Amino acid sequence: MTTTALGLRLPRRWTARHGGRLVVRLALYAIVAAIFLVPLWSMVATAFSAADPKNGEVFLVPHGLSLGHLTTAWQLGMGRGLLNSLIVVTVGLTLQVTVSAFAAYALARKRFRGASLVLLALLATMMMPEEVISIPLYLLIGRMRLLNTYPGLILPIVGWALPIYVLTGFMRQIPLELEEAARVDGAGDLRIFFRLILPLSLPALGTCAVFGFLMIWDQYLLPLLVVQTPGMNTLTLVVTGLAASQEQGEGVRLAAAVVLMVPSILIYLGLQRLFERGLLSGSLKG
Amino acid sequence: MSALRTSAAPVALPAQRDRSGSRRTVPQRLGRSLTPWLFLAPALIFFGVFKFWPSIWGVYLSLFHVQPYLGDQWLGAANFTRTLDDPDLQAAVWHTVLDAFVQVAGSMLVGFVLALLLEGPARHLRILRTAVFLPAVIAMVAVAELWHALLFPGRYGAVNSLLGDVGLGPLPFLASPNSSLWTIMLVQIWKHAPYDMVIFIAGLVGIDRELYEQCSIDGANAWQRLWNVTLPALRPITTIVLILGLIRGLRVFTEIYVLTGGGPGGSTESIVTYVYRNVVVNNDIGYAAAISALLLAATILLTAVTLWWRRHRENA
Q1: Which B positions 69-98 lie with beta carbon below 8 A of chain A?
Q2: CB B119 to CB A5 under 8 A?
Q3: Is A265 in contact with B137 (Cβ distance < 8 A)?
Q4: What pTM does this model have?
Q5: Are residues B163 and B296 in the same domain?
Q6: Whether residue B15 sits in one domain with residue B146
Q7: Contact state of B216 with A3 under an 8 Å Cβ cutoff
Q8: What's residue B20's pLDDT?
Q9: Do B190 and B311 reside in the same domain of the chain?
Q10: Is the CB of residue B160 less than 8 Å from the CB of residue A239?
């Protein structure tokens, strides 16, 4: 029998007092679920309703099931926004994880002068909020003639300290004997990296992919500065654009927000184990 | 390298002899010392161009009146002295600092309560934890959009109609300068508390169960156990959650920009929304860069002080 901090454990013998406690606990669970889940559910229920809610009104049960709000939002640029966001996240994430894996291999498996300085410099950017450099970054992207282009949206998010940190920590734990055995067989660094270290690092790579996806999917200020025509809008810009226009009802606006929300939730639920491991390694030891 | 010293690893011996020091030619040795840098090169280029260079350039820009097509005009420290005398900026700093502290404290408190409530190996707890964590993974824009709808100031607004059922409200929420910032804090706490919960749960799991048992034997009640065992054990984690939260708080932009745009009447203007406004509306890039540079300095200072404080406490 394990004891928890609050002593919440199942009793050995049931009494009226235990029954009362159980009721209190169930009530607390219900409150927690109501606060954190019901808002999300109401968003989905409203988005898939046929009826259009008044401003600020949401439905707890769909009022007539319909894809109407979704198709309206789709025609108003959501399709394009989804495509753009998928392009940015696919290319951006691939580059981010690849670049991080290469860097982590050097930092984790090689001894060289300056290694700790490089690691420190890269990790220091974790403490440097992206929003703080957004203005010179915007000017830089302008000078590179990358405003309103995919590279302008993608290149700035490739360098991220978190995956480098997670992968370096993971790669350090791969036993040296494996690498030495490969070297005896005449394998070079590239071969060892691709054939040995990368396959063994798959769980950590998965963790980085989950975090990278959420980070890139969440981007708002960067697209706000870089995008100049509706055709380049990312999904976050489409969602806020629909909200700002005020011409569309609550249903359409929430439908767009649901489309923005669902991929993150699916990724999280699908790769939850990888996600939690990353969350803890990234924040507890950092 | 002598054969004796490596004899503990006989398999590696031939390879090491082949590759080690004396027998290798100069180009080979150079190649080996270059290898890590070749692997690091892509990352160094991306970080250099899109992280380090903009932060340096930003400080440089802050010394100019920036005019994209007319040429920049040297101002010296004028942009910085201007910050001292700008009531809008002072209001934005106050909002940001207040928001950072309240949302961090609120998220930690709610996250801690959630952790105590939902900690445990049982299956139903695991499911509930997963569900409660959803707000933390959803894009901030979607969260802001959702709460913008729920917190509609009219009587029909979802939250207001709930309040109406118990005889309260309707409250103006985001529509009034008196409540707008507090409303934004509630939304932030809703999104960030589950994140803190997961971190606290990890800390709770690490606590030696026997300490709890001993407390029970000593006749301590649940509150005493919480105060004497749980909270002290969680202190290191709390510091980290606090630093990350404050830094996260100082750069607040998306939720404010989406929920209120800094309004009504500037009541929710944060440092970064003010910077954004100076660039996009006032086209005053040099001044925006100066504020950003100060924000960067504040962030670094905050991190350094917290780290120093932590080390100081650990040594004491």
Answers
A1: none
A2: yes
A3: yes
A4: 0.85
A5: yes
A6: no
A7: yes
A8: 45
A9: yes
A10: no
Rounded to 5°, the CA angle A197-A198-A199 comes to: 95
Residues B280 and A120: their CA atoms lie apart, in Å, by: 34
Which chain B residue lies closest to A226 (C-alpha atoms)? Answer: B280
Cite the residue boundaries of each domain of chain A with CATH code 1.10.3720.10: 73-284
* Complex prediction ipTM: 0.87
Q: What would the CATH number be for the domain defined by A73-284? A: 1.10.3720.10
- Is residue A253 helix, strand or coil? helix
Note whether residue B70 is domain-resident.
no
CA distance B260 to A230: 22
Asked, for residue B65, whether it belongs to a domain, the answer is no
pLDDT in tens, B247-266: 878 889 999 999 988 878 88
Tell me which residue range forms the domain holding B31: 3-47
The answer to whether A200 and B105 are in contact (CB under 8 A) is: no
pLDDT in tens, B141-152: 999 989 988 888
Interface of B with A in 117-176 (CB under 8 A): 117-121, 128, 130-135, 137-142, 145-154, 156-158, 160-161
Q: Is B249 contained in some domain?
A: yes
How many domains does chain B contain in total? 2
Q: Most confidently modeled of A237-251, B81-95, B209-223? A: B81-95
CA within 13 Å, CB half, A17 = 3
Q: Do B154 and B13 fall into the same domain?
A: no
